[in-house]
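Dear Dr. H.,

I hope your travels went smoothly. While you were away I took the liberty of generating a structure for the chain from your last submission, since the lab meeting agenda had it listed for discussion. I wanted you to have the full record in hand beforehand rather than looking at slides cold. The sequence, exactly as received, is reproduced here:
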Amino acid sequence: MALTPDNQDKIDRVIEQDPHVTIFLRPIAAPAALGLAGFAGSTWITASWIAGWWGNESSPTVFFPFVAFWGGLAQFLAGLQGYAARDVLVTVIHCMWGSFWMSTGTVYLLVTLKAIPAHNVHEHFPELGSWFVILTFFTWSGVLASAVRDLVLCLVLLNLAIGSTIACCLFAYGSSVERGMKAAAYFWIFSSILAWWRVTVYLVEEAYGKEGIVRFFPLFRTSLEKRKPLLAPGLGEPGVKRGMPGTL
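The corresponding predicted structure, in token form, is as follows:
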């Protein structure tokens, strides 16, 4: 039975009747916990290597599987769960950075298979630089959105955004590229440490509650975040819990 715009009586009857539907709510853990954990691990490994703390030019051919699966696939899947948690920030940030790490892993897989030549990340590399242009814009958007949540998350994205902005130096030539990438690496390292901090809050708060050990891991939530309801209202839909510490 079709509804047409000219049949107003039928439209009114359909709108007024009670819908015969059953809605099942499926509780999920905060997807940001998995997303930030994957991000922290892959970012720390890669950034510390770029900073020159360890390894050599062939190191990525060994650590790329962990980066691709933990930082890439796991983070990407967490981002998709952000839809169910009604968390747009989680969806955009983790799907984007998960895609980046999966793409990076794929590149180093091709290098390992000798399908493409290796390229030094401390030299002119505009192809990779073009990735960071997109990453930079959307990560700065994430900084703006996270500023009303808590200080730790905001600093995670702020350091990530600054490092990504500096990494656009891959379009340049000469020694400035190496200096720029090493500077970017330190911002990424700071970001990964802060991401670990926030994941730890998810873990200990679920295990111990809001009291006790969790007090040693402050997030500095904003007043706006503290006032938000535990249930996120939808358009005529039942509410669902938001994926954030304190509402697990």
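Two observations you may find useful: The chain has a mean pLDDT of 86. The radius of gyration is 22 Å.

With kind regards,
E. W.
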